[in-house]
Write a structure and sequence with these properties.
Blueprint (H helix, E strand, L loop, with lengths): L1 H11 L24 E5 L4 H6 L6 H12 L8 E4 L13 H18 L3 E5 L1 H7 L6 H4 L4 E3 L2 E6 L2 H6 L4 H18 L8
Parallel strand pairs: 1-2, 1-3, 3-5
Antiparallel strand pairs: 4-5
Helix pairs in contact: 1-4
Bound molecules: uracil (URA).
Length: 191
């Protein structure tokens, strides 16, 4: 707890990239630290920037629905982003911004020590799983690195825009539920 609070307070005054000049709030991350599962998006949008919390806009509401299908939610998962400050007009975060910010996520991950990391969308998958990750081809596949299981699913914003991607994502969510049952079943008891 202490460690994460200290990390959060250092992160809140970060000025390691120009996104700090336009942000209203740093969007650090939310969720219990004793969870085994992390969901990682790309970066805050307008609502997140205003509130200081990840996934609270339309994509966030959709993410909440997706998670509830498989008995997950903010009460038993940690949710964060690759970049902690909103890129102007919701553009993709630049490589330099991602590189400046990724250290915060690495430290969050070290504290949580998750068994499963789910990347939400292409940008997170390319930063976390593999630089040349192809989300259309590879979503839902599992890879294990250093004792952690990684997968990626379509970003909830992409699912809001393109309903044809939803059946595939439903299958991916079921596979995430299986993996949770297998490697961190205690998480399903968390209130
Ligand atoms: N999209 C993201 O990738 N992250 C958020 O926090 C909100 C929207």
């Amino acid at each position: 707890m202490e460690q994460m609070e200290q990390l959060r307070s250092r992160c809140l005054s970060c000025n390691q990239c120009p996104l700090c000049e336009t942000r209203h709030n740093v969007v650090f991350g939310v969720g219990p630290e004793n969870t085994g599962v992390m969901f990682i998006g790309e970066g805050p949008g307008e609502q997140e920037d205003l509130k200081g919390e990840p996934f609270v806009g339309p994509a966030g509401r959709y993410l909440d629905e997706m998670l509830s299908i498989i008995d997950l939610g903010r009460h038993n998962c940690y949710i964060a982003n690759i970049v902690k400050c909103r890129p102007p007009r919701n553009r993709d975060p630049l490589q330099t911004e991602q590189d400046a910010c990724i250290g915060w996520l690495r430290q969050q991950t070290a504290i949580i020590s998750p068994r499963i990391i789910v990347c939400l969308g292409r940008i997170a998958a390319m930063k976390i799983i593999r630089e040349d990750y192809r989300i259309t081809r590879e979503h839902g596949r599992w890879v294990q690195k250093n004792g952690i299981w990684f997968t990626a699913i379509y970003h909830p914003s992409a699912l809001l825009r393109d309903v044809s991607k939803r059946p595939d994502t439903f299958a991916d969510l079921l596979s995430i539920r299986e993996k949770v049952r297998e490697v961190c079943p205690e998480l399903l008891q968390m209130q």
